[in-house]
Amino acid sequence: MDEQLVDIFDEVIARNPGETEFHQAVREVLESLGPVVAKHPEYAHGEVIRRLCEPERQIIFRVPWMDDDARVQVNRGFRVEFNSALGPYKGGLRFHPSVYLGIVKFLGFEQIFKNSLTGLPIGGGKGGSDFDPKGRTDAEVMRFCQSFMTELYRHLGEYTDVPAGDIGVGGREIGYLFGQYKRITNRYESGVLTGKGLGWGGSQVRTEATGYGTVFFVREMLAASGSSFEGKKVVVSGSGNVAIFAIDKVHELGGTVVACSDSNGYVVDPAGIDLELLKQIKNGQRGRMTDYVQQRGGQAKHFEEGSIWDVPCDIALPCATQNELNGADAQTLASNGCEIVAEGANMPSTPDAIRIFGEAGMRFAPGKAVNAGGVATSALEMQQNASRDTWSFEYTEQRLSEIMTSIHHRCLVTADTYGAPGNYVAGANIAGFTQVAEAMLSQGVI
Ligand code: NDP
Questions:
Q1: Model confidence pLDDT, tens digit, residues 278-318
Q2: Pocket residues for ligand 1 (CB within 6 Å)?
Q3: Number of domains in the chain
Q4: Contacts of 347 (CB under 8 A, 6+ apart)
Q5: Which range of residues forms the domain containing residue 161?
Q6: Does residue 99 sit in the same domain as residue 238?
């Protein structure tokens, strides 16, 4: 790391004790910025990087709610409004028991650069709760969402802060959150949340966008070396929103996804994952990957031990959660001849894993570039809401595809310009950063 940046990083650690995921996300960006500070002394003078590492606003609140047995439950809610240089804060809400301030901050920090890369006018933020929707009834999820929004609404607005979904927050939760916002404010402010239902302000392709966008990005990586998905064996971790639609698009483009997972283990299905069955189990039955194997039959097998990254593949798409792919996994992927790792999830690869990808000559692309299609399509949803218009599926998917091609191009051109040809991490961090830094300098010390 450049010497000027070491001080800033030390300060981040001292100021945010114990928030290891946030430290990891900041380190990864700062390690890329050496050539940028050398070329732009004005960034140091304006303390742009130091300011960027400190969220503009952090909100933490109590979320009390009543379960079905009339017992009072208490959770903690978060919203970190990280940076609004390019537009209103934009980023999802995560409901998972592992959520604490450090996770929300790492996600919010990543979101600044990701949103900048889309080329659309959105700032960075993220939120969530340690609430676990798993095993809860619809009525419990609704009461939780209503209580969460009863506090959060005062911080939101289509020009202020626009949340969306993430782990544990899908169409059902966005519906309950939007209903409560509307009730409290007495405003039908469609653009205040994205990921809405298609009949009431949602956008075509938003549900599919992160998974599809991930695969569009890899399509560009393959095309850059004269190749395509045709005949490629792919492993996708997770079986949630991002994973399901990544699998969908890989199959459409001629590849075969032979494995996917949930937090209890992974399934190998050599004939290719049966997407309709997977969707039915995950969305219809809210079931597990063990149910998939039981209902699929044939050669599909479930494994509780080991790692999904033991399954040989040409392309690996981690689409579950942070730090799910470690150094040992990276070594296995390399030994099995995997050529490309592209992150559908946020920060799924540990720093060790990323180092090993480089040493093994594999091509690696980070989440902030690869999975930016989700937030990009959220911004397209905001555009449609603002103009009270709805676009067709084909048109919206075309826009998403063009945005992903443009992000891929920007990463490679920027990496070249700053002396790191082919390095998607450097390209994504530098391209995302410079646009935000320029805007911050123009807007003064605020
Ligand atoms: P979902 O809740 O729909 O699915 C998450 C999947 O990951 C589930 O299969 C879940 O399994 C698995 N998972 C979660 N935590 C763990 C864990 N600790 N270990 C193993 N598996 C785990 O979330 P999404 O698909 O929306 O999000 C997945 C990733 O993509 C996250 O990193 C998210 O931040 C990122 N992302 C999502 C976007 C979106 O538009 N949804 C946009 C950009 C990034 P189980 O059911 O067992 O918990």
A1: 999 998 888 999 999 999 988 999 999 999 999 999 999 99
A2: 165-168, 210, 238-243, 262-264, 319-321, 324, 344-346, 371, 374
A3: 2
A4: 21, 24, 25, 28, 106, 110, 322, 323, 367
A5: 55-189
A6: no
